[in-house]
Design brief:
binds magnesium ion; binds adenosine-5'-triphosphate
Length: about 270
């Protein structure tokens, strides 16, 4: 029994293929993500991870198959319907480089609140939502008056995640959220995401993309292993890490220090910074 039994998956790919010109980049992918779940997508550079994210955001067209978000087929949306769906903010994307979502000339607090201003959310409600998002990522409120240049890489990435959260998405797509960070910052961001998963358990889904299976091991319930645009393995993270079936998955695991990957979900409280 699961809490959302009776409801369909939050995200479903059905036999999805994507082409860039004559080249098939994603080849008949199928996967499901339920509300409250974190699904990790792992694969080496060029395996198609970002293209998968773009298909879920509907910024690339599907050659075949479907992408369902909350039961709605987004692959067929065009024109005004597509714009309305985008504006709904149901799916939010977090870049590898937080400076792509944070304007260098705008204070952190204003950047986080921007989506609410655009949606004309009343100021008092907006403040509450910003506070909740800032709290959810463990960011010190004192940082909100600074410009992005005054934050560490990890703080910036947590601000970018807060910015995505304030619009209350159904699904967060994080594309290499920790790859650009040093080890300490990486750990803080992963801890923030683990805490977020716990606090939003029933509503939010996360699709977390990484070339590094180690950073996904502690975070994701399920893993999807992408190799040359195909899913070669899909299952519970714990099972894949303990008993990888595909030689490519084994190679990915062997490239990570054992101590990183066997690390359980640590319920550490989130200190602020
Ligand atoms: N706009 C594009 N036009 C043509 N080919 C593209 C385009 N974007 C990506 N590709 C190709 O599609 C394949 C998958 O690219 P994608 O960016 O999805 O990989 P990735 O797994 O995200 O890689 P990385 O880990 O380096 O970010 C690659 O072979 C890439 O060269
Ligand atoms: Mg990529």
């Amino acid at each position: 029994m699961t809490h959302d039994e009776g409801r369909g998956p939050l995200l479903e790919l059905q036999d999805l293929s994507v082409d860039y010109g004559p080249v098939r980049v994603l080849d008949r992918l199928s996967l499901r993500l339920r509300a409250g779940q974190v699904v990790g997508v792992v694969g080496e550079s060029g395996s198609g991870k970002t293209t998968l994210a773009k298909a879920v955001l509907r910024t690339v067209d599907a050659a075949n198959g479907r992408v369902l978000v909350d039961g709605q087929d987004i692959t067929r949306l065009r024109g005004g319907a597509l714009r309305r769906w985008r504006r709904s903010g149901a799916v939010q994307y977090v870049f590898q480089d937080p400076l792509r979502s944070l304007d260098p000339g705008i204070r952190i607090g204003e950047s986080i609140a921007e989506g609410l201003r655009i949606a004309r959310i009343p100021a008092d409600q907006a403040r509450e939502r910003v506070d909740a998002a800032v709290e959810a990522v463990g960011l010190d409120a004192e940082l909100l008056t600074r410009l992005p240049a005054g934050l560490s890489g990890g703080q910036r990435q947590r601000a970018a995640i807060a910015r995505a959260l304030v619009v209350q998405p159904r699904l967060l797509v994080l594309d290499e959220p920790v790859s650009a960070l040093d080890a300490a910052s990486r750990d803080r961001v992963v801890q923030a995401l683990i805490a977020l998963r716990r606090s939003r358990d029933e509503q939010l889904g996360m699709l977390v993309i990484s070339h590094d299976i180690g950073s996904l091991a502690a975070l994701s319930d399920r893993l999807v292993v992408l190799h040359h645009g195909r899913i070669v393995e899909d299952g519970l993270t714990s099972q894949i890490v303990a008993r990888p079936q595909h030689p490519y998955t084994r190679r990915l695991i062997d490239s990570v220090p054992v101590i990183d990957i066997r690390q359980p979900n640590r319920p550490a409280p989130l200190a602020r910074s």
